[in-house]
Structures are given as structure tokens and as C-alpha cells.
Amino acid sequence: MNIKTQYISEEGLTKLRAELEELVNVRRQEIAQRIHDAKEHGDLAENAEYEDAKNEQAFVEGQIQRLEALVKNATIIDGSHGTDHVQIGSTVKVDGSDGQEQFTIVGSTEASPGDGKISNESPVGRALLGKRKGETVVVHVPAGDFSYKIIEIR
């Protein structure tokens, strides 16, 4: 299990805790009931419902372990950071070959590139961390290198 620090916003941690609570208090009981009902149907060796419920149980238990580890190792992203350099939690406006783009640097748990949230562990996130307004960063990716000029840090 991955035990490294997981950077996450207060909102993201609340969502993880709610998902964990749902899995532990609702889904776990639903699956236990499905297993019980499937056992009532007799021979377990040829019981597809039983097999399906056991597979789902294994998946849910794995999810519970993963979420428990994330919550345990979570470090809340400080929302009151400065704007002199890029750090986790910063929103950065950059100018690149595709025009202006805006990224919010988040932990890998909350990353959603389509929503402009990039991981601090991604190539772009790593390149931007610690940089200041006006600096140009070069990002090295398998498709080639590209650069961004930092226009604004919030």
C-alpha cells in the first residue's frame, strides 16, 4: 500500500471521508446481504450470484483499504499560501504554444486535468512548483518538450 503523504484540499478530504463512510456503512452491509441471500439458494459452486457478490465484496474491501490509507496520510493543502511562487494549492495562469491556460496544483488524489486541476507529481505540476511570475518553465514529456511562461499566481 502506498504510504506517502497525500496532499488534498479540505473539500477533497471531506469527499473521501464521505465515500469511505458510504462504503463501510452501506455498501458493505448490502454486499453481506447479497452473499447471505445467495447462500440461501443452495450449491455455492455453481451459484453465479454468490460468486458475483464475493467479487464485489473483494473490490469494496480494497477500496475501503485504499481510502483509509489516503485519509490517514492526508496533508491538507493550505488555502492561505502566498503568491510569490507556485506551490501546492496555487492557481497558475500560463502562456504556452496553445495560448493561455490555467492550472490549479493539487495532490494526485484530486487531479482532474479536464477541470484544470493537475497533480503536483505530473510533469507540468513538477515543472511549475517553486517558480515565480515571469519565469518560463520547460516541461519534458515523452511527446517532446514544451514551455510555459508564468503570467499569474493566485
Explain this structure:
There is one protein chain. The mean pLDDT is 90. By secondary structure, this protein is an alpha/beta fold. The strands form 2 sheets. Strands 5-4-3-7-6 form a 5-stranded mixed beta sheet. Strands 1-2 form a two-stranded parallel sheet. It folds into 2 domains: 6-76, Helix Hairpins (Orthogonal Bundle), CATH 1.10.287; 91-153, Transcription elongation factor, GreA/GreB, C-terminal domain (Chitinase A, domain 3, Roll), CATH 3.10.50. α1 (10-40) packs antiparallel against α2 (48-72). β6 and β7 form a beta hairpin. It has helices at residues 10-40, 48-72, 123-128, and strands at 6-8, 74-76, 91-96, 99-106, 117-119, 136-141, 144-153. The protein contains 3 helices and 7 strands.
In short:
The chain contains three helices and seven strands.
